[in-house]
Amino acid sequence: MSLVGAMVVPHPPIIVPEVGGARAPGVQSTVDSMRKLGLEAAALAPDVIVLLSPHAPLDADRMAVCLAERYRGSLSTFGAPQVKVDLVGEAELARTILTQTKDAGIPVVGYGEGSGATPLDHGALVPLYFLMQWMEIQPRFVELNFSFSGTARHLEFGRVIRAVIDERPESILYVASGDLSHRLTPSASAGYDPRGAEFDEAVVNILAGGELGELAQIPDVLVDSAGECGYRSLLVLAGVLEASMYETRVLSYEGPFGVGYLVGAIDVRAGSDVPVSKEARGDSLVRLARETVERVVKGETVPKAELPAGSGPERAGVFVSLHTADGSLRGCIGTLAPTRPSLAEEIVRNAVNAATIDPRFRPVRPEELDGLEVSVDVLGEPEPVGDVSQLDPKRYGIIVRAKDGRQALLLPDLEGVDTVEQQIDITCRKGKIDPLRDTYSIERFEVTRHRDQPSQEGAGLQ
């Protein structure tokens, strides 16, 4: 089961009706979004919630992992003692996270082991109030916290957490708790800084764009000016999601009381072994392919075929795929092996062809460009397949070659292609190969997928 989803949540007690009272309408967008997350959490029905709270015990130099067997807390400090949470801790999972974090060379401290119930802070209590509202069975729980170390260490902490999660049999929901800038208005309790709104806008845009790794590129001066408590929580989440195919949804953002409240959902796509470029929407390969498509469709000169150093292999087979906003295939042209002197030239050539000469579609028109999504698949070296047991349509694409030269290719991890039999049948049909009468061979290959938006991933047969 492993990771079934992730969520980005704020934690102002005012959004809890029993606390907010007459002031609650001022954060209605946040309340409505948190209720929606609660319904989604109930539908996911996780066995365990792993939540990082900025208000859990904090060590400036070390990440923190709670090893408690039980958690309890209420919002009595905020005038609502009737709002209570009592959860069983998933101590074994917590101990594994602690151990593997140490093994990775990341400074970390454990707390709460062997004591009575560990008290829950409002950074956990407020999200849990909403997330557990409609759950039929209470999940077990693990609480974490960040440190004040650098961005790279928080990303690595997230990667370790994910590696542990992936080895677990339980279904796990990961929750990043944190508020954005506390300095949005002159009346804000933390003071006012105009860069607070700039920071919040950057974070919201990154979440909306679907690539949380870009958080690490926000300048330190902007983070420091924001007076936030959620940035490092989101960095850890970025590390957790780095190995995933996922879609992000911004449900709401507002800052009515001088503090930014962001609510977001991350739909983690299960069952895929195709590695995705970590740079995703900002990917240089995708940018080159998109610019090429846009220019050729507008009748302009194609861009110079150049990529930054380290963007990929020097030469490779490449497929450029175009999808409409609803996920429908709009064009896909590629090469099984490199045919041009460089990877960049391969991308430019196939992007031009995908937009203009895919025989299944009319050429892309200028008015379609705004809704067009672009992905680039870089093919690994094909290898012969001796037995169909060596195939996996989620991980490997295949090439079917008939003796007389007919051949066809199917990329991996496509919607509607769930079995090896389907994969072979579709590929043979594409190449007009009769699997019962013709003699043919099969090769498999892996791809690295560079995509424009996660939502188009796997949509349509190519």
Question: Can you describe what's shown?
Answer:
With 462 residues, the protein is an alpha/beta fold. It has two domains: 2-269, Protocatechuate 4,5-dioxygenase, Chain B (3-Layer(aba) Sandwich), CATH 3.40.830; 280-456, 2-Layer Sandwich (Glycoprotein, Type 4 Pilin). Helices cover 29% and strands 24% of the residues. The protein has helices at residues 17-20, 28-44, 91-103, 122-131, 151-166, 195-209, 220-226, 231-241, 284-297, 343-356, 420-430, and strands spanning 2-9, 48-52, 63-66, 70-75, 80-88, 108-111, 118-119, 140-145, 171-177, 245-254, 261-269, 318-323, 329-334, 373-379, 383-384, 397-402, 407-410, 440-445, 447-451. A hairpin with a 4-residue loop joins strand 4 (70-75) and strand 5 (80-88). Helix 3 (91-103) crosses helix 5 (151-166) and helix 9 packs across helix 10. The protein is globular, with a radius of gyration of 25 Å. The two termini are 29 Å apart.
Structural class: alpha/beta
**Number of distinct beta strands:** 19
Number of domains: 2
Stated plainly, the CATH topology of the largest domain is called: Protocatechuate 4,5-dioxygenase, Chain B
Short description:
The chain is an alpha/beta fold. The chain has helices at residues 17-20, 28-44, 91-103, 122-131, 151-166, 195-209, 220-226, 231-241, 284-297, 343-356, 420-430, and strands spanning 2-9, 48-52, 63-66, 70-75, 80-88, 108-111, 118-119, 140-145, 171-177, 245-254, 261-269, 318-323, 329-334, 373-379, 383-384, 397-402, 407-410, 440-445, 447-451. Residues 275-282 and 453-461 have low confidence and may be disordered.
